[in-house]
Amino acid sequence: MRYWSLLFALAAIACVAAFLYSPFSPDWWLPNNPSNPHHVVSTFGREIDSLFLIILAITGITFIGTQVALVWVAFRYVDRVDPEGRPVRPATYFHGSQRLEVVWTIIPAAILVFIALYQMGTWAAIKFRSSAPKVQPLAEVTGRQFQWVMRYPGPDGRLNTPDDLHLVNDLHFVKNKMALIYLKSSDVLHSFFLPQMRIKQDAVPGLTIPVWFDSDTAGNYELACAELCGWGHYKMRGNVTVHESQAEFDEWMRKALEAQNVSQLAAASGPQGEMTSQ
Q1: Is the peptide bond before 146 cis (omega within 30 degrees of 0)?
Q2: What is residue 136's predicted lDDT score, i.e. its pLDDT?
Q3: d(CA 199, CA 10)
Q4: Minimal CA–CA distance to 54: which of 110, 119, 104?
Q5: How far is CA 265 from the centre of its chain?
Q6: How many C-beta atoms surround the C-beta of residue 125 within 10 A?
Q7: What pLDDT score was predicted for residue 273?
Q8: Which strand ranges, in their side-by-side order, compose the sheet holding 190-194?
Q9: In three state form, how does the secondary structure of 34-60 look?
């Protein structure tokens, strides 16, 4: 029966190898820019990853310790029988160790308190409304089954006015500038998730929630819904474009507004309009 202990040892070694390999592999860790897979593009992302690494180290050390104890006990106290099939060492039963129970309660509690205190600064910087940047809102983002609706302020610089730009699943902002959006939901719970920037926030019906993020690398990224919101949940994916400069963003905005105005004119002068003019 000692072969069972060897099996446990091999399984533990495979898990430890995965622990050690995962932070250094872009395919095993959270996604980054494909052109530089080991660089986290956002300020908050680097802080979030450091928390992940600390938790991975704590759980990894705990796992190694428990697996070493498990393999040693399975190997050392294997059941032995004499030639007649009777146990060589009779089993003994005991209630337990109160001291040991206290120790293995205090240590995990202390670890949890440490993690809670250590992450407070990062949590406050990402989630506390008092930490929201004092900048003009980039857009209003509304989750609905099954798409993200973006509303950008138009030339007047204000949201919810007639010149606003309306897009679906298309988020744009400028590199090295903190972007502030107002997040809403028009139906059920959704979760606004920018994997490369390590930003996630639930969109709750009836609430308007400020969300802020940045990126130090221009490029194309992903927007996803991380909350199961119905049969079409898998379709709630959007494009995120980080522009190299404000001028590039402004040029994109100008073209998008022109395209929107053209489509509105086309809709106004459609078949119904032609019949009216006759």
Answers
A1: yes
A2: 93
A3: 37
A4: 119
A5: 40
A6: 13
A7: 46
A8: 170-174, 237-243, 219-225, 190-194, 199-203
A9: CCCCCCCCCHHHHHHHHHHHHHHHHHH
Q: For the chain, what are the domain ranges?
A: 2-25+33-80+96-126, 135-264
**Would you say 149 and 168 are in contact if contact means Cβ atoms under 8 Å apart?**
yes
- Which residues are CB-contacts of 213 (< 8 A; sequence separation ≥ 6)? 42, 44, 178, 179, 194, 197, 199
Residue holding tokens 């998008």? Answer: 256
Burial of 202 (0-12, 13-18, 19+ CB in 10 A): middle
State the 10-residue block means of pLDDT for the chain, 278 residues long: 79 88 79 80 90 90 90 81 73 80 92 92 91 93 95 92 93 96 95 94 96 94 94 93 95 93 68 45
- Cβ-Cβ contacts under 8 Å for 201 (sequence gap 6 or more): 183, 191, 192, 209, 211
Architecture of the CATH domain 135-264 = Sandwich (2.60)
* pLDDT on residue 263: 74
Q: Which of 155, 151, 226 is nearest to 181 (CA)?
A: 151
Closest CA to 122 of 41, 46, 211: 46
CA dist 62 and 85 (Å) reads 38
Q: Where are the beta strands (DSSP E) in the chain?
A: 139-144, 147-152, 165-168, 170-174, 179-185, 190-194, 199-203, 209-213, 219-225, 237-243
How far apart CA 186 and CA 166 sit, in angstroms, is: 16
Both structure tokens of 156: 């007047």
Instruction: Record the pTM.
Output: 0.81
